[in-house]
C-alpha cells in the first residue's frame, strides 16, 4: 500500500481533532455503544444550552415532546418511552405541572393512572423547543445530505424500536434522570 493512498474501509475511519491529530477508530467505528457514548458526550453541552435557554431542567424536554405528541399519555407509558424511572418522571411532571406547562387527571378506566396533556403554555414551549432542536440538528447535519440524514434517523429509530421490544424494562439505579 502506498503512503499517498490511505487505507479505506470501516476499520480505517478516523477521528480528526482540533489539535490536528488523526486517530483511527479501528473496529470501534462500528461499535454502537462506543459511538453512541461519544456522540452523547459531544452534543451534551448543546442540550444543556437548550435547557438553559428555555429555563428547563433535565428531563423536561423529553416529557414535553412526548406529551405534545401523545396527549393523554399515562405517566407509566411516558417513563417507559423516555427510558426513565417512574420516580424521575413523577418529579419532572410535578415540576412542569407547577409551572403551568401540563395537567394531570385520573384515568376514568384506571384510577391509579394519571393522564397527561399540555396546557396552552406547554404547547407554546414545546413548539419553541422543537424549532430550536431543529436548528441544532440542521447545524449538526450540515455536511450530511438530507437523504442520508433521513436514513440515519430511520435506522436509528428502528434499532431502538427493535431493542425496546425485547428489553426487560428494568433501569439501573444510576439512570434516574
Characterize the structure shown.
- This protein is mainly alpha-helical and 177 residues long.
- It folds into two domains: 1-30, no CATH class; 31-50 and 57-166, Orthogonal Bundle (Arc Repressor Mutant, subunit A).
- Helices cover 54% and strands 10% of the residues.
- It has six helices and five strands, in the order E-E-H-H-E-H-H-E-E-H-H.
- The chain has helices at residues 32-53, 60-69, 75-82, 86-98, 120-140, 146-166; strands at residues 14-16, 22-24, 73-74, 102-106, 114-118.
- The strands form two sheets. A three-stranded antiparallel beta sheet has the order 3-5-4.
- A hairpin with a 5-residue loop joins strand 1 (14-16) and strand 2.
- Helix 3 (75-82) packs across helix 4.
- The longest helix is centred in the N-terminal third of the chain and has 22 residues, at 32-53.
- The radius of gyration is 20 Å and the shape is globular.
Can you describe this structure in just a few lines?
The chain has 177 residues and is mostly helical. It contains six helices and five strands; from the N terminus they run ββααβααββαα.
In the CATH hierarchy, the third-tier topology of the largest domain is known as Arc Repressor Mutant, subunit A
Shape: globular
Written as H for each helix and E for each strand, in order along the chain, the element string is EEHHEHHEEHH
State the share of residues found in helices, binned by percent. 40-55%
CATH superfamily of the largest domain: Winged helix-like DNA-binding domain superfamily/Winged helix DNA-binding domain
Low-confidence parts lasting 5 or more residues at pLDDT below 50? 1-5, 173-177
Mean pLDDT metric: 87
* Rounded Rg: 20 Å
**Total number of distinct structural domains:** 2
Task: Give the termini distance in whole angstroms.
Answer: 49 Å
Strand fraction equals 5-15%
Major beta sheet, strand line-up: 3-5-4
Number of helical elements? 6
Compute the number of strand runs: 5
* Main sheet characteristics: 3 strands, antiparallel
CATH class of the largest domain: Mainly Alpha
Q: In CATH terms, what is the architecture of the largest domain?
A: Orthogonal Bundle
Helix/strand-derived category reads: mainly alpha
Amino acid at each position: 500500500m502506498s503512503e499517498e493512498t490511505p487505507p479505506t474501509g470501516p476499520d480505517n475511519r478516523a477521528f480528526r481533532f482540533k489539535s490536528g491529530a488523526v486517530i483511527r477508530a479501528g473496529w470501534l467505528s462500528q461499535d454502537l455503544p462506543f459511538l453512541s457514548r461519544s456522540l452523547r458526550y459531544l452534543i451534551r453541552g448543546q442540550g444543556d444550552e437548550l435547557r438553559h435557554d428555555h429555563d428547563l431542567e433535565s428531563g423536561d424536554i423529553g416529557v414535553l415532546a412526548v406529551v405534545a405528541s401523545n396527549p393523554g399519555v399515562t405517566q407509566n407509558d411516558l417513563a417507559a418511552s423516555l427510558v426513565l424511572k417512574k420516580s424521575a418522571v413523577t418529579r419532572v411532571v410535578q415540576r412542569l405541572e407547577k409551572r403551568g406547562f401540563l395537567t394531570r387527571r385520573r384515568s376514568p378506566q384506571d384510577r391509579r393512572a394519571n393522564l397527561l396533556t399540555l396546557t396552552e403554555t406547554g404547547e407554546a414551549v414545546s413548539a419553541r423547543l422543537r424549532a430550536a432542536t431543529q436548528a441544532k440538528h440542521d447545524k449538526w447535519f450540515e455536511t450530511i445530505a438530507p437523504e442520508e440524514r433521513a436514513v440515519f434517523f430511520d435506522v436509528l429509530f428502528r434499532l431502538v424500536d427493535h431493542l425496546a421490544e425485547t428489553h426487560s424494562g428494568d433501569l439501573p439505579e444510576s439512570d434516574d434522570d
